[in-house]
Amino acid sequence: MKRTLIPTVLVALALTAACTSTSTPETATLGGGDSPATSAPAEGGSSGGSDAPAAAGSALTIDSNGATREVTIEGYGPATPAQYGLPATGELVQVTVTIRGIEGTTQLNPLYFTARAEDGTSYQAALGAIDGQLDVGTVPAGDVIRGAVAFDVTGAPVQSIRYTDELGGQLGTWNVQ
């Protein structure tokens, strides 16, 4: 029994070490238009993001993973299902996401966006449910990508949209209610 437990513990420790970030905290900046931007402290010490959610339609300037981008969430409301898309089991809603590359190259994926209800319920992106879905790819500096992210809301109504990095570290939040 001890012989099988030791390798299991070693594998678990190796996986934990591989998933632990040692990077410095990042910051997100809430700005928009010509108004001066204000910096917000990093959340939890490991990923950037504003402590207070931004209003829908506001742009957050986010620095993470060697890239700076401006992300805007707007247009929260009912979604029109794609003719050949996957059917929703609840209410299909969507937001429009605009990402403008400022510096470096930003990784892009609709799965980096999560809808969150006031009671803590999270809804993942409903891939293939709508036309015009946000693409998977990259956004180089100077480029702008725009697309929709849909959510299949099967319980409590959505209050906010969260944007994360590739490993799930929160980078920004927008209130949509």
From TrEMBL:
The keyword Transcription regulation does not apply. Keywords: Signal. Residues 23-63 are annotated as: Disordered. Residues 57-165 form the MPT63-like domain. GO terms for cellular component: extracellular space. Residues 1-28 form the signal peptide. Residues 35-59 have a biased composition (Low complexity). It comes from the Bacteria. This is MPT63-like domain-containing protein.
